[in-house]
Structure formats: structure tokens, C-alpha cells
């Protein structure tokens, strides 16, 4: 074999000594460890081709920056959906769930009923429902924020949700509504203003 070119000598002296570190870096960043040798070779090709134009001033940094950029490029390519796949979507005859004008109107009406019912709740009951169901606070967090014990808070939640369900879905939607109406009347009055 003949003498190595200056570029080959540079590559052997400045890049190849970092192979173990490069493989560790790639194996940490790569999902499939079987791809690491191929990725390593691809990094070497990119570094070598770039060095043909101009030798980098910091070879180790350049090597790892190239590896990082290669991984970024691969991830970007993984996210791209081929146009060939999207052209066949019409052939699949997939039904698309679209909201009809009637469904939209019904949803708006339910939302108005819910907002009106929420306005009818007492201040404490409305605050509890808001913190628990809208903001998603835990029972403990809501009780601490409102300065009430968890038992009282739990009562407000159940009475408030029941009152809101009655307002939005009507009395026909609730199971055993009539049987329990007498017992609930007193507790519901604690949550309702009027």
C-alpha cells in the first residue's frame, strides 16, 4: 500500500482516536443500538468530506457537532410523512367525524345551560367546582386554597355536580332522581342561591 495522503493522516490522527467516545455518544442518543456502527460511518463520511474542503480547527468538537447534526437530521426525516402515503388516503374511504351544525347548536345550548347553572350556585359551591373540575386541583389543594376542610369540600362537589347535571341534562337524565329528591332537597338548597 502506498503512503497516506495528508487528509488521511489528519483523519487517522485527529478523528479516529475519538471512535469509542463517538460510539458511546451515538448509543446514548440512538433508539436502536444496532444502528450505531452505521451512524458512526456516516459521521466519518460527513467529517471526511467536509475536511476535504477545509480542515476544522477543533477536530473533536467538529466530530461531535457532526454527529449531533446527523441525529437531528434523522429525527427530522422520521417525522416526515411521504406524499405517496397521503395520496392513498382517499382510496381508504375513511369516514371523517365532522361536527354537524345541529351538533354545534346543541353543544352551544348545553354550554349556555351549564354557564347559567354555574352562576346559580352559591359562591362557595362555585369556587369548589371551579377549582376541582376546571383547574383540576386535588381535593387537598382545593381545601387548602379555600380554607375549608376536605369533608365540606367533598359535599360541595357532590351537590354542585348534581345541580349542574340537573340543569344541563334535565331531570329525566338522572338515575333514581325522583326517589332521592326528598333527601337531596335540603342539601341542594345549600348550593343553590334561589
Descriptive tags:
194 residues; mainly alpha; Rna Polymerase Sigma Factor, Chain: A; Arc Repressor Mutant, subunit A; 2 domains
CATH fold title of the largest domain: Arc Repressor Mutant, subunit A
Q: Assign the CATH class of the largest domain.
A: Mainly Alpha
Mean pLDDT: 79
Q: How much of the polypeptide forms β-strand, as a percent range?
A: under 5%
Q: Please estimate the helix content.
A: over 70%
Largest sheet, if any? none
What's the CATH architecture of the largest domain? Answer: Orthogonal Bundle
By CATH, the superfamily of the largest domain comes out as Winged helix-like DNA-binding domain superfamily/Winged helix DNA-binding domain
Any idea how many domains?
A: 2
- Report the structural category: mainly alpha
The succession of helices and strands, N to C, reads HHHHHHHHHHH
Shape type: elongated
Low-confidence stretches: 172-187
**Radius of gyration of CA atoms, rounded to a whole number:** 33 Å
In total, the number of strands is 0
End-to-end CA span:
99 Å
Specify the number of helices.
Answer: 11
What report would you give on this structure?
The protein is mostly helical and 194 residues long. It has two domains: 6-83, Rna Polymerase Sigma Factor, Chain: A; 102-191, Arc Repressor Mutant, subunit A (Orthogonal Bundle). The protein contains eleven helices and no strands. It has helices at residues 6-14, 19-29, 36-53, 59-79, 83-87, 89-92, 101-120, 123-134, 139-146, 150-169, 177-191. Helix 2 packs parallel to helix 4, helix 7 (101-120) crosses helix 10 (150-169) and helix 8 runs antiparallel to helix 9. The protein is elongated, with a radius of gyration of 33 Å.
Amino acid at each position: 500500500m502506498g503512503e497516506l495522503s495528508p487528509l488521511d493522516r489528519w483523519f487517522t490522527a485527529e478523528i479516529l482516536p475519538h471512535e469509542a467516545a463517538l460510539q458511546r455518544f451515538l448509543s446514548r442518543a440512538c433508539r436502536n443500538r444496532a444502528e450505531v456502527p452505521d451512524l458512526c460511518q456516516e459521521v466519518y463520511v460527513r467529517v471526511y468530506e467536509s475536511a476535504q474542503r477545509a480542515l476544522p480547527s477543533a477536530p473533536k468538537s467538529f466530530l461531535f457537532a457532526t454527529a449531533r447534526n446527523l441525529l437531528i437530521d434523522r429525527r427530522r426525516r422520521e417525522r416526515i410523512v411521504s406524499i405517496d402515503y397521503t395520496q392513498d388516503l382517499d382510496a381508504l374511504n375513511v369516514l371523517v367525524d365532522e361536527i354537524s351544525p345541529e351538533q354545534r347548536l346543541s353543544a352551544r345550548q348545553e354550554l349556555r345551560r351549564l354557564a347559567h347553572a354555574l352562576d346559580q350556585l352559591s359562591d362557595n359551591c362555585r369556587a369548589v367546582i371551579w377549582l376541582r373540575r376546571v383547574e383540576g386541583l386535588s381535593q387537598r389543594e382545593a381545601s387548602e386554597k379555600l380554607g375549608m376542610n376536605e369533608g365540606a369540600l367533598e359535599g360541595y362537589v357532590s351537590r354542585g355536580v348534581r345541580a349542574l347535571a340537573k340543569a344541563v341534562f334535565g331531570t329525566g337524565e338522572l338515575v333514581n332522581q325522583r326517589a332521592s329528591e326528598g333527601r337531596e332537597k335540603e342539601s341542594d338548597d345549600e348550593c343553590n342561591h334561589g
